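Assemble and predict.
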Amino acid sequence: MTLFLCHMLDSGAAGLAAYGGGAAPLAGKGEDPFDSGMWDLHRAEYLGDPAGWQADRGMRVLAPRAAEDPAHVPVIVDATDVQGQVRRIVVTIDYSPLPLALVFHPGRAKPVLGFGVKYEIAGPIRATALADGVPARMGGAFVDAMGGGCTAPAAAHARPDWQEGFGQMRGRLWPATGRLRVSIRHPMDTGLADGIPAHHLTGLRLLDGQGDLIASVDLHEPIEENPALTFTLPPDLAAGPVRIEARDTNGYSFAGEVTA
Amino acid sequence: MISRRQALIGGTAALMLPLPARPAAPEYRLSPQQVADGVWLIEGARDSFGPRNGGAICNIVMLATHAGAIVIDTGGTARHGAALRRFADQKLGGVAASFNTHHHPDHWFGNQAFADRPIHVLPMTARLQAGNAQALSDGLYRILGGWMSGTAPLPGNPLPAGDGFGAGGRDLRLLALSGHSQADLALVDRATGTLIAGDLLFLDRAPSFPDADADMWRASLDLLAGLPASGIVPGHGPFARDSRAFVQTRAYLDGFHDRMARAADLGLAPSEALAAGPMPDFVGLGANPEEYRRAVIQRWRDFEDQALPLIGGSV
């Protein structure tokens, strides 16, 4: 089962199937389906070198085959079919100068997250689900890219006043499907572009009507400029309201609320 | 006598033999067809840029005149341009002048082969050619490899104001439009009534949207549809005497707009809209699903902002 919503468009279910459904290529037990050099290092550094990790076609990752725009590579991950209660989903990009894109703590939300990343060079993007009592499960997709996404200045810096509209939050809740989408106007500067210091969102949280935590995401440099995040909530929480809070490296805070 | 260096190279090559070498790019094979009196069409592959087509994907038109050919679009690489130039020199008595319909590289990266004669473009096109040459060239070298060898993009010269052009006894009506890109030149050959529409029209090949403004594009189509034309050459796809290219291009613009607006309004993420694939009626078009997928990424933000209301900000 997947919580992707492709089927809501005409012949979208067939399209998703033809696209491969987000499953990683087949691989033997303990083998990397992408046969890529960085996975061993990233597994050690960002996942704590989990014993018994496996590639799992149930850890779905939908990403474009070719980046088209290395500053905005849209991705959505779905760990619904991963065994056990998923506590964390760690997203890494193999050949990025800044490999860690985000860590998602689904909490009371479904283990589904849409986001966009910058791409510096072609390679796999991976999502690894860590669930209680189950070895780490990795899925991913290979994205071909011209690159430059992480080292190019944010588009905002080409404007006379990049702060115009800074922090503006847009969002919407769809109770029927449990979808919640939120976008924040933010340059997401990596610190790798000449003369532009790092300035990016560090985290975003969803809170219910009582102010209790639903889910949270730790955000890192590779996340796209003006990021948009897509969540899926269970029916009780999808009735809203949901408060969204975010912070960045310069101490700015952002907040907004969506209702059904 | 073999020099030490040659011997070394030969030795290295022998060592590397088991590795599959990238073959040298083959020659461009042109199949010009005369679609109206003195109007030659060299049709492009109905596909995206790729190593199989060498970037020869857009339609090239040559109009025969007493002073040589008027060439409309010059091809996607220097070598493609050179092959087109050979045809003009051998069959049409040389080149009188060239035009680039807009700044997308398949239409002008062959300019080098025509540089000894005037190359006319809309003023905005000249600016876009100069501004984007390096990025476009980097991208195409990566996709096309050896096909691109020797290609150094050469922007055209801005046309003076005016809606007419003549050479060697042939008169053209020029129409400065936009919508597919920021500046799209369409031409009408007055002698035969042939409309050369550039990429404002596509037929049996998915339209591309990297610089599209759908409303402007529709307005340009309305204007072109009002012209009396005996035949139509789209930017990509076959020559036709009927209005199919208008019907199909409009339907694709509307269908894509509806699909994106619906996806954004239903809460889909852009990656889901991309994976869902093209509108069912257009799955089989040349260059799809690739063009659809590119278009989702290029145009998604236009629709997302419409679907997501303002809910907060910096606190």
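The longest strand of chain B covers residues 170-177.
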